[in-house]
Amino acid sequence: MKIKVEDLHVYYGSIHALKGISMEIRRNEILGAIGPANSGKTSFLRTLNRLNDLELHVRMEGQVLMDGEDIQKINVSLLRKRIGMVFALPLPLPLSIFDNVAYGPRMHGIHKKKELADIVEKSLKASYLWEEVKDRLSSSAFKLSGGQQQRLCIARTLAVEPEVILFDEPCSGLDPISTAKVEEAMLELKEKYTLVLVTNNTKQAARVSDRVAFFLMGELVEVDGTSKIFTNPRDNRTGEYITGRFG
Description:
Largest sheet: 6 strands, mixed
Strand order of the largest sheet: 6-7-8-3-9-10
Oligomer: single chain
Number of domains: 1
């Protein structure tokens, strides 16, 4: 077990966004989170690395433990280094490809050229981008395609050596070929990292997830092995969502 969530409630003002979520996230797994819009998936993700701290009028009850430690007691900068996040839209920095990946390590005190070069190469290889950009690392990141920019953002996250990577709809704006490359990277990354994938694409969840959690109206309906969720879910609502009867 890498993360344990105990009776988690999240409120945005008077809106009760998450209602008593309790679950475990295992080491080196891809946990897929599915559910219709406003089901609480992204709120759950943002709670795990305290991005909700940036929002006004947000209140949290319950507990999230990482390696047995309450995340509310971890320095938030250190927490976000340990739990990285890749967003729906790629957000490269207005820098070169190299400097995008090196940005995080530099912020954490690494400045030797050889060490930075090694980190950049390793991170780009892990995100399946190295072969496409190795001869133009000094070029602007904005010259990359959308799919390449998303993989660059994954590399930038990997460069600070997180333990957990959160993906919030990382392929929502990508073509099928780019999506396949991102998914291939995810499957390789779980050898070293714990991944949580929020996706509205149930087929994607079926392809890459080891387990799947189904959220509905702020509640966790069920979480189970991927094949079990997609072939014999415990709750009828899960089956109805997966078969497209609602959502």
